[in-house]
Design goal:
heterodimer; A: 282 residues; mainly alpha; MetI-like fold; globular; B: 259 residues; alpha/beta; four-stranded antiparallel β-sheet; 10 strands
């Protein structure tokens, strides 16, 4: 029996490590392919360069970095108030029966393939923006709105969890002092759940910054520095997604290098989310 | 209730019953609450003493299906605080509560004490400063925290946290202060300090305290009600309850024969 246990233990260990090693391999591969080009172009010129013309050998990805941050910022601007309001409503006001319907429905939002979001945005949102606000319609604004919806499930479920995980005495303590339900929520419970809520926002940002397919369809993919929310733009992810099909040589390496930058940004976001949720537990 | 009650009344419970859905937790209880005195509720676990206490500031309203019958009249205006027509917020503005476990908010010492004032819309900084200082002094905490009132409240010791919760409850000048086993999570030294504090506070505020610790009730309270299975078995001056109880059940409990 014991020998068998040992074998099973070893196998499980191997499986656990292989999933970690895949992460390591991916990182190694991207960095291995991308870093040489970053050195060749120069990190400064690569990150701060504004011209991306692969055929002429100019590889500056600043417009894409700015584009990624703009759509992410826009998504947060829309997704956070909406998501937080939804989380508060679900944890504090929704009758259990309705919550039982709402919660899985919100989870379902996360299950919709991003190409469907992109499709919907292209057909409904882009014409709306073009007709009512001007510009090409394929714009940071349209992308932000779609992304805002896409990050809702992340923000709602993690924020709601952290609100529900609060010890009940915060609420009763506040109410016992004469606070209204809303005052207890806004001045005690939300601040108490802050680290979880911030973690949900960071994870949402990670999702937004990594989204590719929907953005390819909605953003217009123009390689220029965006100057307004109605401009077309290109993000780090869409840059890779669009051009990888035909790139070769330095161009191909430059796309991997774009991946390196994206990888670093997402790593920073995720590890800060993990650090924050640790602090919440202790 | 054999004693002729010569005290000024701050509140009076008349024929109060309380139900958790179908389960009756309090059965037609009556109790006078003397102004500026300490009334203790004692009894074995599950006798309904905490349930009783929580009726006084309508904490049961947090859960649907809870129901009050009868009256708790708050004097001088004879407001029936368990009436469904009375806003529980209005009741809690006048009757505050200190819980079993110290439950400071994740805020600074200052903001904890100021919370009750802020929810009442108080914004004037000078007045907030004054009231916070006064409440911390009343709770015998000022000297220990005066240099760190802008530190997080979690950095205080357990006993200090509980005194902070008392200061927080006092800051809004409540008429009655409810204590729900306030020392059960504290060590003996901290307990002693809280007890001394409670005795000092009665000059400012009427106090009702629930305790499972009979010595505590004997030490701090002026009046004691002994509860059993949702009923008040005996109510009298504390001295009388602990020396010459008139009911056999009370005597059995205070002599430790059950509980």
């Amino acid at each position: 029996m014991e020998a068998k246990d040992k074998i099973i233990e070893r196998i499980l260990l191997l499986i656990a490590f292989s999933s970690i090693s895949i992460l390591g391999l991916i990182a190694l591969f991207i960095f291995g392919e991308g870093l040489p080009l970053i050195w060749k172009v120069g990190p400064r010129a690569f990150i701060l360069g504004e011209r991306w013309v692969p055929s002429q050998g100019s590889f500056g990805i600043l417009p894409m970095i700015v584009g990624s941050f703009w759509v992410t910022f826009g998504a947060i601007l829309l997704g956070v108030p909406l998501g937080l309001a939804c989380a508060i409503f679900l944890s504090e006001w929704t009758p259990p029966l309705i919550a039982m319907v709402l919660r899985p429905t919100i989870q379902l939002l996360a299950a919709i393939p991003s190409v469907i979001y992109g499709f919907w945005g292209l057909i409904i949102l882009v014409p709306l923006v073009r007709n009512y606000l001007g510009g090409p319609g394929l714009s940071i604004l349209s992308g932000s709105v779609i992304l805002g919806f896409m990050i809702l499930p992340t923000i709602i479920s993690i924020s709601e969890d952290s609100l529900r995980a609060l010890p009940p005495y915060y609420k009763s303590g506040a109410l016992a002092l004469g606070a209204t339900h809303w005052q207890a929520i806004w001045r005690v419970m939300v601040p108490a759940a802050r680290s979880g809520i911030v973690a949900s926002i960071i994870l949402g940002m990670g999702r937004a910054i990594g989204e590719t397919m929907a953005m390819i369809m909605i953003l217009g993919n123009a390689v220029k520095m965006p100057t307004s929310f109605l401009d077309s733009a290109r993000t780090l992810t869409t840059n890779i997604g669009i051009e990888m099909g035909y790139a070769s040589g330095d161009h191909r390496q430059a796309l991997f290098a774009t991946g390196v930058i994206l990888f670093l940004i997402i790593m920073i976001l995720n590890s800060s989310a993990i650090a924050l949720s640790r602090r919440r537990r202790s | 209730m054999s004693t002729v009650f010569s005290e000024n009344l701050k509140a009076e419970v008349k024929n109060l019953s309380f139900f958790y859905n179908q389960v009756q937790a309090l059965k037609h209880v009556n109790l006078p609450i003397a102004e500026n005195r300490i009334t203790a509720l004692i009894g074995p676990s599950g006798c309904g003493k905490t349930t009783y206490l929580r009726c006084f500031n309508r904490m049961h309203d947090l859960y649907p299906g809870n129901r009050y019958e009868g009256e708790i009249l708050l004097y001088p205006d004879q407001l029936n605080i368990v009436s469904s027509e009375v806003d529980p917020i209005e009741v809690r503005m006048r009757i505050s509560m200190v819980f079993q476990k110290p439950n400071p908010f994740p805020k600074t010492v200052y903001e904890n004490v100021a919370y009750g004032l802020r929810v009442r819309g108080e914004r004037r900084k000078r007045l907030l400063d004054e009231k916070v200082e006064k409440a911390l002094k009343q709770a015998a905490l000022w000297d220990e925290v005066r240099d760190r009132i802008h530190d997080l409240a979690f950095n205080l010791s357990g006993g200090q946290q509980q005194r902070l919760c008392i200061a927080r409850a006092l800051a809004t000048d409540p008429e009655i202060l409810l204590f729900d086993e306030p020392t059960s999570a504290l060590d003996p030294t901290a307990t002693l300090k809280i007890e001394e504090l409670i005795m000092q506070l009665k000059k400012d505020v009427t106090i009702i305290i629930v305790t499972h610790n009979m010595q505590q009730a004997a030490r701090v309270s002026d009046y004691t009600a002994f509860m059993y299975l949702g009923e008040i078995i005996e109510f009298d001056k504390t001295e009388k309850i602990f020396t010459h109880p008139s009911k056999k059940l009370t005597e059995d409990y205070i002599t430790g024969r059950f509980g």
